[in-house]
Design a protein that fits this description.
single chain, 389 residues, alpha+beta, Butyryl-Coa Dehydrogenase, subunit A, domain 1, Butyryl-CoA Dehydrogenase, subunit A, domain 2, Butyryl-CoA Dehydrogenase, subunit A, domain 3, 4-stranded antiparallel sheet, 10 strands, binds coenzyme a persulfide
Length: 389
C-alpha cells in the first residue's frame, strides 16, 4: 500500500520502531487498567528510561541523544498510539526540561539535564494558576530576593507530573508591578523547604497522568536557581510552549491513528444487513476522511518540527498551527471512531471510548485551541503589516 515517504534517517526509523514496540508491548496491555485505577505509570517510565527515550532532544554533552523537536515528535506519536496519558507523563518531563535546555547556564544544564535525559528524575513545568490559564501573564505567584535566596509564595494549578517529578521549572513574579515583564523562571526541587503538593485531581480522561497543585509557602531556593535573566520569565514560558506544541500535535496524530486502526478493524468484522459494515459507503467515507485528515496533520507536524530543527526562530505561529490542526483532528477522528463502533464504541470493552475521553485534553492543555488561533491571528496581523510597509 502506498505510504507517504517522510524520508526518515535510519536513526529516526529506529526511534519510531522502538517507541512503537514499547507502545505495543508495555502500554497497550495495561492502559485500560491504569485509566480505571488512575494509576501513575512508573513501570512504563522505567521502560522509557531504559530505552534512552527521555534524552532524545537533549545534547549528547548532557547525556542525551542529541536529537531535536522532530525526533521527539516521532517518539511521542508512537507512544500516543498506545496511550496519551502515559505519553503526557513522558512529554511533561520534556516541558519541564526545555526551560533549562533553552535558558540554563552551564552549571544548571550540567546539574539537571543528565538526570532528565536518563529518566532518573522526571521534570514538570509550572505556569498555570487558578486565575491565570489562557491569560498566562496574570500569574500571582511571587519570588522575592532574601540574601542568598529567593523566597517563593503562591499556588500553581493543574501541573502535570506534580508530586511525582523531582525537578520543577516555575514562573513567578519578581517585579509585580511590571506584569508579564516582571516574571522570572526558577528551578525548584521537590525537596526544597516550603514546597508541597495539593491532592491528585480526578479527570475525565488522561487519568493515568498525575495532576496536582504546587504550593509554595515561603519556599526558599538558592539564588543560582534563577533561569535566564530576571524579568525574562514570560518569554521563557512562551518559548518553552512554542517548542513543546508540535509535540502535542504529534500526540494527536498518534492517538487518531490508533482510533482509525480500531475503527477499520471493527468495520471489517462487524456484520449488519448481511455484510461487513466496511462495505457501506457511509462508513467508508467516514474512514476516508479520518485517514486523510490524519495524514495531513502528520505532514504539518513533521514539517513544523523539521523547520524548528533547521534553526527557524520565529516559530510561534507554526507551532500553534501544528498543535491546533492535529488536536482538533484528533478530537474529530476519535469521536468518529466511537460512532463507527456504535454502542460497542461507547462501552469500556473497546478502547475508543477512552481515546475519545482522552482526546479532549489535547484541545485544552498547553494553550487552548482558541489561544492557538489568537497566536496565529496575531502573527498574521504582524506579517501583513510588515509587508505593507
Ligand atoms: N515568543 C517570544 N516572545 C513572546 C511570545 C513568543 N511565543 N509570545 C509573546 N511574547 C512576548 C511579546 O512579544 C511581548 O513582549 P513585549 O512585552 O516586549 O512586547 C510579551 O511576550 C507579552 O506578549 P503578549 O502581549 O502577546 O501577551 P499576552 O498577555 O497577550 O498573552 C498569550 C499572550 C495569550 C499568547 C499567552 O498568554 C499564552 O500563550 N497563553 C496560553 C498559556 C498556555 O499555553 N498555558 C498552558 C499552560 S502550560 S501546559
Amino acid at each position: 500500500m502506498g505510504k507517504v515517504n517522510y524520508f526518515l534517517t535510519e536513526e529516526q526509523q529506529m526511534i519510531v520502531d522502538l517507541a512503537r514496540q514499547i507502545a505495543e508491548e508495555k502500554i497497550v496491555p495495561v492502559r485500560a487498567e491504569l485509566d480505571e485505577k488512575e494509576e501513575f505509570p512508573w513501570d512504563i517510565m522505567k521502560d522509557l528510561a531504559q530505552a534512552d527515550l527521555f534524552g532524545l532532544y537533549i545534547p549528547e554533552e548532557y547525556g542525551g541523544l542529541g536529537g531535536g523537536c522532530f525526533e521527539n515528535c516521532l517518539a511521542l506519536e508512537q507512544l500516543a498510539w498506545g496511550c496519551i496519558a502515559v505519553t503526557t507523563t513522558y512529554a511533561a518531563s520534556a516541558l519541564g526540561g526545555y526551560p533549562i535546555l533553552l535558558f540554563g547556564n552551564d552549571e544548571q544544564k550540567s546539574k539537571y539535564l543528565p538526570d532528565i535525559a536518563s529518566g532518573k528524575k522526571l521534570a514538570a513545568f509550572g505556569l498555570t494558576e487558578a486565575n491565570a490559564g489562557s491569560d498566562a501573564g496574570a500569574i500571582q505567584t511571587t519570588a522575592v530576593e532574601d540574601g542568598d535566596y529567593w523566597v517563593l509564595n503562591g499556588t500553581k494549578q493543574w501541573i502535570t507530573n506534580g508530586g511525582e517529578a523531582e525537578i520543577y521549572t516555575i514562573i513567578a513574579l519578581t517585579d509585580k508591578h511590571k506584569g508579564p515583564r516582571g516574571a522570572s523562571a526558577f528551578i525548584v526541587e521537590k525537596s526544597d523547604p516550603g514546597f508541597s503538593f495539593g491532592k491528585k485531581e480526578r479527570k475525565m480522561g488522561l487519568r493515568a497522568s498525575a495532576t496536582r497543585e504546587l504550593i509554595f509557602n515561603d519556599c526558599r531556593i538558592p539564588k543560582d536557581r534563577l533561569l535566564g535573566r530576571r524579568g525574562q520569565g514570560f518569554i521563557i514560558a512562551m518559548k518553552t510552549l512554542d517548542l513543546a506544541r508540535p509535540g502535542i500535535g504529534a500526540i494527536g496524530v498518534g492517538l487518531a491513528q490508533a482510533a482509525l486502526d480500531e475503527a477499520v478493524k471493527y468495520a471489517k468484522e462487524r456484520i449488519q444487513f448481511g455484510q461487513p459494515i466496511m462495505s457501506f459507503q457511509a462508513i467508508q467515507h467516514m474512514l476516508a476522511d479520518m485517514a486523510t485528515q490524519i495524514e495531513a496533520a502528520r505532514a504539518l507536524v513533521y514539517s513544523v518540527a523539521r523547520t524548528i530543527d533547521a534553526g527557524e526562530k520565529d516559530i510561534a505561529k507554526l507551532a500553534a498551527m501544528a498543535k491546533l490542526f492535529a488536536t482538533d483532528m484528533a478530537m474529530k477522528v476519535t469521536t468518529d471512531a466511537v460512532q463507527i463502533l456504535g454502542g460497542y464504541g461507547y462501552m469500556k470493552d473497546y478502547p475508543v471510548e477512552k481515546m475519545m475521553r482522552d482526546a479532549k485534553i489535547l484541545q485544552i492543555y498547553e494553550g487552548t485551541n482558541q489561544i492557538q488561533r489568537n497566536v496565529i491571528g496575531q502573527a498574521l496581523n504582524k506579517e501583513y503589516t510588515i509587508k505593507k510597509k
